[in-house]
């Protein structure tokens, strides 16, 4: 825990009863209903049409509001939370040159801590209660510790991906012959060894797409020895087509249900079926993939055809907005192109299944929990799960009349409609406000100036 500048202050925990809300539970045994949810000791204890309780309880009026499980972003490079919106029209090589190679080496541990806090703050504000932080800024053990410390401070649920450094960034990707940093052992043994905690560890590996087959094999063995789940970026533009990482993992017998594959834009249909057959999960960063040329197009529909319901992710806030509403809308926009027959090369002329607003909400919640291996704890409004919940106002002008709640949220919602956010029963956003946010905003602005100056790069301005 940290008592430094930038700690989100929870409003209240305790016993909470939400009454009369539209419940989009994401639990097929319960379904959607207008009803009540009782939270006790940080967990959902009861879900029903009407709950009466005696004793001390905070009652939250849910009328004309929707209660959902908190959204789960399964892939965000949170360290970039304070260098937002640098390149909305960047190509993938431009992003790599500017951020990973240009700015990354100049991040001090404190910049990583502030960046992560800013990312968590934005996420919580927009109703994201779990972030999987793909942290490829492990420039030193102090960087790792600062990154993790921020997630404890913010109050968010975090699945922390120990990645590689941004120093000498080019040597760590695209054919790298360097093994994953050994500090992951220290982090596992001394920092994040409790897999039931609010912040848990997994291994963000480069796999056979970004490192040599021998290195990939060794890194996977290390992760499994440490009993860590694994993520990999695959299907990245032409490089993905050339490397066929999933096929290689299938061939070496390493493909498994502990793996989440991120992007999959140019992963072949056959590889997607291999993933499905082995219980692997996927993360589609639809907004980033649509906005940033060079990666390929969102694989949402092809994944569905292969039998995988994907999770969704933001990726980098240096190029796209950090909320899941934009990600859901980008996925829909691309599906429309696909239906119109003007989609990208991997999809053209194929008979692909489609998805709707309700599907997108499930991708953003329960499927995210599955991809992180935490669906026994979060991702749906189910009795016994930890109370990661968001309350959305349906009477705001931009959402009226909200006859179909899922469609209204996917079509029109933004962070301003998120009225209350709760993680494990602790209310972090209340009446539309996060307490403690101001300090983080100021620190983020200072950090952005510092890293740009240190890197000798101009801070973008409107002038
Ligand atoms: Zn990424």
UniProtKB/TrEMBL annotation:
<dbReference type="Pfam" id="PF01979">
    <property type="entry name" value="Amidohydro_1"/>
</dbReference>
<dbReference type="InterPro" id="IPR011059">
    <property type="entry name" value="Metal-dep_hydrolase_composite"/>
</dbReference>
<dbReference type="InterPro" id="IPR032466">
    <property type="entry name" value="Metal_Hydrolase"/>
</dbReference>
<dbReference type="InterPro" id="IPR006680">
    <property type="entry name" value="Amidohydro-rel"/>
</dbReference>
<dbReference type="InterPro" id="IPR050287">
    <property type="entry name" value="MTA/SAH_deaminase"/>
</dbReference>
<keyword id="KW-0378">Hydrolase</keyword>
<dbReference type="GO" id="GO:0016810">
    <property type="term" value="F:hydrolase activity, acting on carbon-nitrogen (but not peptide) bonds"/>
</dbReference>
<protein>
    <submittedName>
        <fullName>Cytosine/adenosine deaminase-related metal-dependent hydrolase</fullName>
    </submittedName>
</protein>
<feature type="domain" description="Amidohydrolase-related">
    <location>
        <begin position="67"/>
        <end position="427"/>
    </location>
</feature>
